Amino acid sequence: MFFKSKFRLGYLVNVLLVFFCSLPAWSQNLTPNLPDTLATYTLTTLPAHFNDPQVRASDNQNDANPVSDAGATLGRVLFYDKRLSQNDSTSCASCHQQSTGFSDTAVLSQGFEGGVTGRHSMGLSNARYYAPDLFFWDERASTLEQQVLQPIQDEVEMGMSLVTLTSKLQATQFYPELFNSAFGTQEVTSERIAMALAQFVRAMVSYQSKYDQGVMINFANFTPQEQQGLNLYNSARTNCSRCHGTHLQIMSQARNNGLDADTSSDQGAGAGRFKSPSLRNIAVRAPFMHDGRFASLEQVVEFYNSGVQAHPQLDRLLTRNGQPVRMRLNEEEKSALVAFLQTLTDTTFLTDEKFSDPFVFQENVVEDESEDVEPSLPNLETSIVPLLLLLLAE
Questions:
Q1: Which helix (H) or strand (E) holds 169?
Q2: For the residues 109-132, what does the mean pLDDT come to?
Q3: CB 183 within 8 A of CB 71
Q4: Closest Cα partner for 278 from 346, 217, 228?
Q5: For residue range 149-175, what is the model confidence (pLDDT) as tens digits?
Q6: Total H helices, total E strands in the chain
Q7: To 5 degrees, how large is the angle CA 102–CA 112–CA 89?
C-alpha cells in the first residue's frame, strides 16, 4: 500500500512538473495572426528614383525565386518563429528587429544558449539592392537564399539542423497550408524555407523616408541644416556618396574603411574589407560597424573626420598621396552631416504591420473597449485537475 501511494505521489509530482514547465510555452500565442487577405509584398509603384539604372543594376532579385505575397507571408512567419532554434528560444527577429531597421541594439547578438555572435547583426533595410549578391559582413554567402539558412544552423545563433527543422515545421498545424499557398504543395523543405525567408527579406524595401520625399522636389522639404548635410555628403570633401552611392545609399563592393591599421584584426572579406548595408534607417541602427564599436552617428562621423587608420589595404577612396583622407569638418558641418543621415529614416517601414511579428498576442475584441483582456492560460479544470483527482482517488 505504501509503495503504491509512493508511486502515485511520484507520478503526480512528474505530471505537475511537466505541466508547470510547459506554462511559458502555453501562455504564448504560437499560431500566427495573419490577415484574411494577404499583405502586398510585390511592390509595383516604387518612387521614380528606384528606376535609376544604377539602382536597377544593384537589384539582386532572384529570377528563380521572385517575391510573391504568399511566399513573403510564409517568410514573415518563419522570420519571427522561435521554433527555428534548437530550444525554441530564438528567431531571426531576435537579432534583427523591425524598430531598428532589422538590426540589433546589442553590440553582439545573443544566441539560443546565451553565447554571442562574432560580429554585430547587420541591418536588413534594402538588402535587396547589392549588385554583387553576396551576404554577411565578409560576403561568405553567395546568395540571399544561402545566407538565410546559415544562422539557423550556426552552433551559436540558433543551433538547428535543417533535417530536424523541416520535420518540426511539417508537424505543426499551420505551416503545411502556408507552404501550400506559397509553393503549391504542403511539403516543407529546407530549400523552400530558404526561398520564403529570402522573399521576405527582399520585400524589406525602405522607400518612404524624408529623403525619398525630397528627391522629386529638389529637397525643398529639407531644413537648411539637412541641406548642408546633403551637400557635404555629395561633396569631394567627404566622398560619402562615392562609397554609399545612388539614391539608396548602397555600396557597390566590400571596402576597407581604415577602422584599424593592424592587419591581424578581423579581415572580413579579406584585406580588412567589409560589406556595408544600405544607409537607410541608419539613425536607428546603433551601434555601428561590423564589431559595433561606435555607439552613435556622431562617433561614426568623427571617425571619418579624424580617425581613419593607415591600413595597407585602405580603400583608394579614403587615401590621398598614400595617406588616409580625413574630412576635417568643423562642429557645424559634422552636425549637418548627422542631420542629413537622419533624413534616411523611414518610420512607415519601421512600423509597417506586414513586417511585424505575427505571433504577438492580440487582445480579443470586446464590446466594452475599457475591459482588460488577459492572455489565456490552459484551463486547469479541463486539463490537469481531472487527472489529479483520478490519481488521488486510486
A1: helix 162-170
A2: 97
A3: yes
A4: 346
A5: 999 999 999 999 999 999 999 999 999
A6: 17, 2
A7: 80
